[in-house]
């Protein structure tokens, strides 16, 4: 199988290395808006670089991985589908909700697989939590708690195009809640704060946020996010049931120190999402190769990405208007 990869930034370069090591992949062809960067990464990995992203579509590919900047996602996905190329696209599929809905309308009914990069679905802890819910060993679930805490904020120039904390960051938690519980979110109440750098408020964003989700069976989910967690990168999901409870992401590198006696982290905390989810990133690409080859069902279709985005959109509206928002209010 010959797979093209558009975009060789942080995630893209990692994807290229993963693809190169997969036995089913005979050739990896890289391209980037910066051809020099593409050649540099290609030379390092011993793979081929195309002259430009445009050249990927005449390279005889069997599938395409999109890890380019968000603004390029929709056009690349649309073109890949039109060329009958299975495509893996990092989230989001498009720059905003309307663009996502439009893209999905354009590719609907084509039969070409489009897998979205929501890597927590491939994290062993989240998978185990999902299995615990499905097995009934937890009893009925009454509460889910999920957090994403960054050790340091992103650059100021990233914020205006990020979509905001809920759409950019917490959307992973929203998808994880749906994935683990198997339930849908029906209502969101959200709030946010700015106590860090001024550039968050200047961009209309927040540096800390929280969302209370009501699921369709009455389960309550609490999602929190922050850009300032100097203790380290922290992603956890707890599922609390009537019989038992489980947590994903709690290990000897979790950057949480007991206030009194208790177990303390034995190793250094994860520095960021690429390290914390290294295994999950590799697993989702292995899954994509199977999907592209027609040997497996799509584990993360665009519809799941859209549902998580609806939750993020509702959270933004709730924060702005200081009220609960039903998902149906934002659904297109």
TrEMBL record:
Oxidoreductase found in the keyword field: yes
Annotated ranges, domain GFO/IDH/MocA-like oxidoreductase: 128-246
InterPro entries (alphabetical): Gfo/Idh/MocA-like_OxRdtase_N, GFO_IDH_MocA-like_dom, NAD(P)-bd_dom_sf
EC number of the protein: 1.1.1.18, 1.1.1.369
Keywords: Oxidoreductase
Gene3D superfamilies, A to Z: Dihydrodipicolinate Reductase, domain 2 (3.30.360.10), NAD(P)-binding Rossmann-like Domain (3.40.50.720)
Limits of the Gfo/Idh/MocA-like oxidoreductase N-terminal domain: 1-117
Keyword Oxidoreductase part of the UniProt annotation: yes
Tree of life domain: Bacteria
Gene Ontology terms for molecular function: inositol 2-dehydrogenase (NAD+) activity; nucleotide binding
Pfam families reported in the protein's UniProt record: GFO_IDH_MocA, GFO_IDH_MocA_C3
Class of the enzyme per the UniProt entry, highest EC level: oxidoreductase
Similarity comment: family membership: Belongs to the Gfo/Idh/MocA family.
Protein's name in the database: Myo-inositol 2-dehydrogenase/D-chiro-inositol 1-dehydrogenase
Record organism: Actinomadura viridis
Lineage of source species: Bacteria, Bacillati, Actinomycetota, Actinomycetes, Streptosporangiales
